[in-house]
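Quick start: what a row looks like.
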Amino acid sequence: MNDMLKTPELLFESSWEVCNKVGGIYTVLSTKAHTLQQIFNDKVIFIGPDVWADTVAPDFQEEVALFADWKRHAEEVDHLRVKVGRWNVPGTPPVILVDFKPYFSERDAFFYAMWDNFRVDSIHAYGDYDESCIFAYAVGKVIESFYHFYKLENKRVAALFNEWMLGMGALYVRKHIPAIATLFTTHATSIGRSIAGNNKALYAYMDGYNGDQMAKELNMEAKHSVEKQTAHFVDCFTTVSDITARECKQLLDKEPDIVTPNGFEPNFVPEGEMYDRKREEARRTLINVAEKLLGCPIDPGALLVSTSGRYEYRNKGIDEFITAMNRVRTCGRLRREVVAFIMVPAWVRAPRADLKMMIEKDIEPTAPLQVPFITHWLHNMNEDKILNYIQSVGFTNTASEKLKIIYVPCYLDGQGGIFNKTYYDMLIGMDVTVYPSYYEPWGYTPLESVAFGIPTITTDLAGFGLWAKRTVSGDDINEGVVVINRTDFNYFEVAESIMNVVLALSQMDAAAIERIKRRCFDLARKAEWSKFINYYLEAFDKATRRAEERNR
């Protein structure tokens, strides 16, 4: 750590995804926690939403003695409803979960104050806006209560807020406790994601877009407003990659003060014999499910390919993945069996009873099951884009096909009813992963892949892809990662490039694969939090110095 940097004596970090696994930011925070704990040693406090009512949050451990005097005061004097304990991830940092629902009654007054003080326009709000912003308000109240109770006026205190959902928390702290240094990280601009998700050419016309105008056009005014105003008013504004920094400058009219890329924590990855055992077990499970679903034997040495992430059909390149796999299937050059898995959560109705029974009773299949492309029934089978595209391009999943494709639409938390394994416990069984993203501010999935020794294919529209290209060439899968050039207009060329990499991998021997695995591990080591945390320390320094100057 650079001794010249001013670091906080106490750090708050808040997000909708603290102890609440709903997306990629959970991975950012839960893996970063260990390194922050090593630096701050219980002087970092995470704040998350108490969305669990009377049930226990799955990775929260209550600790009665922790901040017990403040908790009593918070409840009795400040009328806050909080749970205090530790986040059950490596580092086990202190965590406060706050019940924000009581504050809904103050919504109108709070939103007016946000307009009056910071020109945040909530008038066109809909969807998850109110819930997110009222949670952010409750976070501000928690920080205010804690700060005054422990008389921290003479301490260096910083508060980091993640994503637009927490923007009003940052602004509340800025207004009511100006001595606290505020930081705001956008992991993806709400308007940039919306432009991309609405099939508009984000990159080709980036310099012509006006964020406010696009927010009106795409009915995103409230989210865009809180995000933009927060970026302008905090002491330090950060984002996770150079590609998103360009987006912020154009669409939020604010260049980030520093880019803070997302790292990974190596203690999530098994080692030695445990790695080999988990990999074998994952492959056995994946192939067994495939055989039961497809009604035919699968070569134990089949090449297992996967893509995963949030259900953003175009942004995550799910359409591109299916197109590329179809090219592999029909190119006539494939000699090895391939099973491609699309592990993307959708609106699941239930695990398939027929498939579940065959797995549990280990019934030898004699014919494929009905709709042999999917492991769980969906609520909207007819409208599901993934399933429709798989069927429309002509996949059959018959025994004679060299490449089969399987859609796994459940959230991989170990409770899905078919695989009953977590995402990492399935990832470790893959031979290659493909993330042909169109819109990907960072891209945790390819980083997780190389961290687990699995080579990956991504694009230069992903923050991780750009970072990887500064570290290796990005042109050769032997380095562990291929970074494909993707533009607004080269969809089919990207599919062709993916096909060629998959075909090349399918022909490699065990020794070559082992060398690639080692290179994956080497590359992942360069992206560990122990290296990337320095960007955050610089951000804390910038915020602290600005807050001190502002409060003179």
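That is the whole record. DSSP finds 19 helices and 17 strands in the chain. The mean pLDDT is 96.
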